[in-house]
Amino acid sequence: MTPHGDGLFGPTFEETAVGRTWRSQARTITETDVVNFAMLSGDWFPLHTDVEYAAQSRFGQRIAHGLLTLAVVSGMCPLVPGELEAFYGMDKVRFRAPVFFGDSVSVTFEITEKVAKSDTMGTIRASSTVTNQRDEAVLSCDWLFAQRRAEDPAAPGSNPEGETR
């Protein structure tokens, strides 16, 4: 347990530890999720929305959109206001196996890299693996976040005057 709680990130770049891991609770993907995502995105590809078409596919049934799974996982990321400055990007996104209606997915994040970009900002790389209820990997990717450094006067708990805490 870190001083800031049981999340993934520390309050500043320096306090975020490489190697730290965090696992989410499970979230079940429903038909309603898929229909709402199709409406929002405009992606009505029949593999996701047409029972008869999907039954003839290699999967034998409808599957959730890969980007729906990615969007759901983004909401599972343990973000605490004030700890991160911004979402910076993604790398190595791979849809490894289908997510079927009724599958429950959870995600494990691990801090794998920190890069100081300036005196006031750094980037954090968090690798993630999304698994279903059968513990099969269905998605993996690296998330990049911008985080304030302790030297930044706007960082939580910063000490701009250089005083001993």
State the end-to-end distance: 21 Å
Please compute the radius of gyration using only Cα atoms: 19 Å
Instruction: Describe the global form.
Output: elongated
CATH topology descriptor: Thiol Ester Dehydrase, Chain A
Number of domains: 1
* Average pLDDT number: 90
Question: Could you characterize the architecture of this molecule?
Answer:
The protein is of the alpha+beta class. It has four helices and six strands, in the order ββααααββββ. The protein has a single domain, classed as Thiol Ester Dehydrase, Chain A, CATH 3.10.129. The chain has helices at about 30-40, 45-50, 50-55, 65-75, and strands at about 20-25, 25-30, 85-95, 105-115, 120-130, 135-150. Strands 1, 2, 3, 4, 5 and 6 form a six-stranded antiparallel sheet that branches.
In brief:
Helices cover 19% and strands 31% of the residues.
Attribute tags:
Thiol Ester Dehydrase, Chain A, 165 residues, six-stranded antiparallel beta sheet, alpha+beta
Outline the secondary-structure elements:
Elements: E1 21-23, E2 27-28, H1 31-41, H2 46-49, H3 51-55, H4 66-76, E3 86-95, E4 104-116, E5 121-131, E6 137-148
Antiparallel strand pairs: 1-4, 2-4, 3-6, 4-5, 5-6
